[in-house]
Write a structure and sequence with these properties.
GO terms for molecular function: DNA-binding transcription factor activity, RNA polymerase II-specific; protein dimerization activity; RNA polymerase II cis-regulatory region sequence-specific DNA binding. Keywords: Coiled coil, DNA-binding, Nucleus, Transcription, Transcription regulation. This protein has 5 helices and 2 strands. The chain is mainly alpha-helical. It folds into 3 domains: 63 residues, Transcription factor, MADS-box (SRF-like); 51 residues; 37 residues.
């Protein structure tokens, strides 16, 4: 049985009414947003803090390098002063990071395209095997498939034998083949 799915569907953005689903979705999405924040922090070498409150009013926080250090820096509103040389070095570093991020994005897109292509090829192979079950390696076939394969081969053998008999019957002398007429014309 082949199941056809429509893939992921875009969810309408509105508050969920089912409290259990709300809590489960919050947990999954909270973990995903913390993971993305970690990636952003690593890729762009930035300090980041995310604070979220659950539907049960529990606070969850993620920070890199730590929640306290980033909040203290934000609250103090006095970032450390930079000299001209440090500013130039920082601008150069950010430029390099931007270039590396664009290269990374390109490679990730290519990887996703290749993954999609591999999945499409896998689906095509599975569909082909479903249609042409006899092409599947014997070791991978179930007992039922092997029995069906045996019956198909036996039917094929019977059909070939019947076709051979029909051909022999048509070429028998009692039907007068062209060769018989040719032979009779020359008195052979």
């Amino acid at each position: 049985m082949v199941r056809h799915t429509t893939g992921r569907r875009k969810q309408e953005m509105k508050k969920m009414t089912n409290e259990k689903n709300l809590q489960v979705t919050f947990s999954k999405r909270k973990n995903n947003i913390f993971k993305k924040a970690s990636e952003l922090s690593i890729l762009c070498d930035v300090e980041i803090v995310i604070i979220v409150f659950s539907p049960a009013n529990k606070a969850f926080a993620f920070g890199n390098p730590s929640v306290e250090s980033v909040l203290n820096r934000y609250l103090s509103e006095n970032p450390p002063p930079m000299s001209g040389t440090l500013q130039l070095a920082e601008a150069y570093r950010r430029s390099n990071v931007r270039n590396l991020n664009s290269e990374l994005t390109q490679v990730v897109n290519e990887l996703e395209a290749e993954k999609k292509r591999a999945e499409d090829l896998r689906k095509m192979r599975l569909a082909s095997q479903a249609e042409c079950w006899w092409e599947k390696p014997i070791e991978e076939q179930s007992v039922e498939e092997l029995q069906r394969f045996k019956r198909a081969l036996e039917n094929l053998r019977e059909n070939i034998a019947q076709e051979a008999q029909a051909l022999e019957f048509q070429s028998s002398p009692q039907f007068g083949t062209k060769n018989d007429e040719f032979d009779a014309g020359f008195g052979i």
